[in-house]
Amino acid sequence: MHFETKAIHVGRSVDPNTGAVTAPIHLSSTYERQGDGGYINETMYSRSKNPNRRFLEECLTALENGYDAIAFSSGMAAITAVIESLPKKYPKRIVLPNEMYFGVKLLIEKTDIGQRFDIVTIDMTDGEALKTAINEKPTGIVWIESPSNPQINITDIKKVVSLAQGVGAITVVDNTTASPVFQQPLDLGADFSLHSVTKYIGGHSDVLLGAVIAKESSEMLENMRLHQANKGGVPSPFECWLALRGIETLSLRVHAHAKNALDVALFLESHNKVKAVHYPGLNNHPSHDIAKGQMSGFGGLLSFEVEGGADDALKVANSVEMIVQATSLGSTHSYIEHRASVEKELTISPENLLRLSVGLENVEDIKADLNQALEQI
Ligand code: PLP
Question: 118 and 43 in one domain?
């Protein structure tokens, strides 16, 4: 099956009890034990297994050509589960990109994860820096986020995977920004692909959910399944149902996001109040060719630097009228955000940079709103 067909059919069937073509939402927390001590479909208690969660996991597995998927209550719960599931035989050392989703930085800085693991951050676009980092000390996980957030750096996934495999490290790709429509990390050799399903997959800013998709059966995957059931960070059946509904239009939406984003990027590039635009679909993006080689589209997320400093960037963010000044990305709505003032002292985001998640509004309205906001500075 092609991607769009899998997105609509995998994890779904006509409900045998009612004939309903969309799955019922299974809210029951517990399930009846049979006379032989077993359970129908091995479903005993909703934390360990829930039908809606399993439907979503099956569909995500198919979308990224994986072996299995595990859904969690948020992208951060998925990230934590991945890190904590590293089998004992691996070194407790993780090499991460220095430019990545800020929540992971907070996870390391503000929780015990940073003390339990040896964390090294490097410029992941620099192959030499990666070689040095992984040859310096035995490494358990090499983490990739591409395109990165918010500076939209592109990492050559195949190259990093091959270097990591050379030292026996596990590779994990945060595929949230690209979405499964435009990038297939497991096909590029990664061991695990990870999503904040909250973003493009859910797609409407009404779900908080995360998922990990595994390339093959492994001890680490088994540990993650145990983590899900026993540490208990599971998503609700309703959110799994909503995410699966969002997936039906994922391909259509993400292509429309990307079309709007390229149009907006070209508009911003030609604006006299804009100093730089970061979007992998632009020919002048430093990694445009790598992006073209590993992605089938360039996504809906971009960032741009305004002429001036933090005050000017904030003025633009405060002046938009239709676009919403909000965190997050991948929704039908366009969102703008000044990451430096959100991330405060830990930020490496330039002070004049604004992140823009280009939504599905008419692109002329998005450009007109940005234009009037930029005219305020
Ligand atoms: N990864 C990326 C790239 C993100 O942008 C986010 C959230 O913004 C996350 C992970 C965390 O996901 P969640 O907010 O669903 O916990």
Answer: yes
